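It is worth pausing here to work through a concrete case rather than discussing structure prediction in the abstract. The textbook approach is simple: state the sequence, then state the predicted structure, then interpret. We follow exactly that order.
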Amino acid sequence: MTKSFNALAMAQEKIADLDQQLLKRSLRVTNTPCDTHIQVAGRHLKAFCSNDYLGLANHPDLINALAEGGELYGAGSGASHLISGHSIAHELLEKKLASFQAEHIPNVRALFFSTGYMANLAAITGLAKLTQRGEVSLYSAKLNHASLIDGVRLASAQTNAVVSLFDHTCPSSLIELLKADKKPLKIIVTDGVFSMDGDLAAVKELLKIAEDYDALLLIDDAHGFGVLGKNGHGILEQERLCSDRIIYIGTLGKAAGVSGAFICAQDSFIEWLIQKGRPYIYSTATPPAIAHTLLKSLDLIEGEEGCTRRKHLNQLITIWQEEMTFVNWDKVSSCTPIQPVILGSNANALMASTLLDGEGYWIPAIRPPTVPLGSSRLRITFSANHSAEDLRELIATLKVIEQKVIGKQA
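Step two, the predicted structure:
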């Protein structure tokens, strides 16, 4: 029998502490493809929790494209992009992604990554190396995604960058900070759509501030790409922005329905990231079959079907905003498929999620550190594959669940 040792005891103690605080998370195994109606451990559940906003994850055209990509390119890439792993499929995908942002970033070029986390780490740490140590400032929205936060932290450790946090609901608070900043390189870092609240960054105002104070503006549009804009090109299209100081990042495992991520920026910035972006340089390239599948996904997003799916999503959002009312819970209305319901305590959020599960719904409780302390919630998300009837049934169920939770508190 293995003798007990300190690190193991520490892990066990910390896990028990998380459990006591109602912060321990657990995995659930699905038996069916990602969709709005799935099986979990043999049970049929109606899912209102995925980021498959356009309902493409199980689309037959993408399934066929994946099989075709496997036939054309095999199962794996075999190496990093800079060794021998950069396929013609990757190249075609990057050109297509760049075309999505051609009206918004002059001389644009795209770089494909395996995940959004890696793209954000590469972008922030790589760009921070454009100047000498101690000569860069990073301005990060307080509620940014963990990958942006970690990118800023890593860049600060590597380059001795000064980090300032700002409230994305009050971007003008950046002005006084930037006025006093004499560093040659300044980077403003923000989500485009904030994933836990569903609200949009004031990117027009942020770009004006970036222009006035000679800063770069890095926007992670993970939850906007495919959803926002007439053609699904994202927040830059929706807000009609154009600037060569924008660094645009999108993910391809949400509305695009597959996996991966990309950075779009002015050609020189992308070339620099190829040279200095360590997550890009030292990662095995995503299988070319995935890139081939994503080409089909992009066609769907900006085509007639994508427009139809976005229109349906907007109809679902309207139904939710007009018909969902709560007595005690706080509904945070959003123009995106992300519709949070704030319950406050971990216990309330877990109770509501458990009761919903009993009614056949999968909507996990979102708790700290994903959201601020005291703002535990149900993060309800819509897919274009949800019907209006699906949503109205959920609304009726939520009204009953709220009363049950309130009753148990009394």
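Step three, interpretation. The chain has two domains: 26-55+305-409, 60-302. The longest helix spans residues 388-409.
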